[in-house]
Amino acid sequence: MAVRLALCVAGITLVGIVGGCSSPFDATGDLPQSYARPEPNSPELRPYSVFRQDARTADSAPRTLSSDAAPDDYIRYALYHSPEAEAAFQRWRAASERLPQVSALPDPRLAFGYYIEEVQTRTGPQEARIGVEQTLPWLGTLQDREDAAAKAAMAAWREFEAVRLTVAERVVTTLHDLAYLDSTIAITRENLELLQSFEEVLRARYRVGSGSHPELVRVQVELGQVEDRVTQLEAMRLPYVAELNAALNRPMDTDVPRAVRIEGRVASVDAAQLSEIARRRNPALLALDEEIEQQRYLGAAARKDGLPDLTVGLDYVFTGDAVNPTTPGSGDDPILLRFGINVPLWREKYDAGVREATARRLAVAHERADRANRLAAGIQRAWFEHTDANRRVGLYENTLIPKAEESLRASLAGFRAGDASFLDLLDTERTLLEFAVAAQRARADRGKALARLKTLVGEPIPTKPTENVTTPSDDNEVEQ
Q1: pTM attached to this predicted model
Q2: Which of 259, 277, 347, 272 is nearest to 306 (CA)?
């Protein structure tokens, strides 16, 4: 009986060894961690996150934003706190955990049978049977499935990179909108103060009989309109602040300092060069490249699914003593080593699996071609918006605003001397206000288009600083 138990233990141990190891026909490699293979080599493999606390995070996590924080500080804070980025990261981790699942052998089977009516043999009656078996897929099947899972995980990583770029663009775009709004508020307030000084002059003239009542009423109407515009602009700031706080994953009513300074940058390469970089570096295109490779491996695995799998089995039969105890081999327990293969007879389902993988690969390939075309078109559009906005900034700040300021000074001198009407002065002042606000709008458009270009290209693009130009706003004006 002890011999029987020892043989049973040995058989079960064999099952564990075979089931826990790779197929002798198909080694899957050493993966101590499931995400070791699909994680790209980069300086920042697993970015910091408030949702994943560790020693690194405790030391260098961007937990707060100072009042003089730069746009890069806002971006780091957003990426650290973003639930959208963390969701994409966890999707990558989930995809990575598929590797050990698809590369493992099928579970071994353990069977036990008891003879209700014993089978009499020469060496004794057979009483029970215990057996184990392990299926070994065709050579290379497990490796193909693992390679396909690795490519799917890499595609998930690329999508995670794309989400991080989108979050960064969202933060930068909102910062530019806030910068434009704060600058416009500052410029409009300056204009309001100027109109108030005009009103005082006209009121003083009207008292001594040298002023016109219609002119006084006109400046008062203009004052009311400008005051209403300031009120509207101040109210508009709340939704922009809420949008930025949403990107930063902060409470909607968290205050954002005014006049966040954003350095003006202009792309130093043309659209054709950016399109070429994007074809190599855009995460969405790289994710589709990984998906194409995934479908190629799945096609190879589908072909091998139509080939026989080998099954190895071991049976142990419990046998009682023979009727004649002197019979040679009386009571010996036979051991049966079995080999078998499945017969992939119904070929249509296997051929259909191959055709399915091929069709999916072609679909992803065509999707990539379409995405590349739309990406190139998007870069051309963003490039135009960026360069056109930069042209408008130069036009307003170097030509139109200086001319409008010169005209305002001349009109003001003529008004004081009595050679120009107040309406001429008011029109000149309104023109200067429109030019100053339009310059700020152009600066914001320039920065937002540059942020869009970075997202489309997939990496920081070469830029150069813009020329410093004096504008009519005060020192709190935002610089793009």
Answers
A1: 0.81
A2: 347
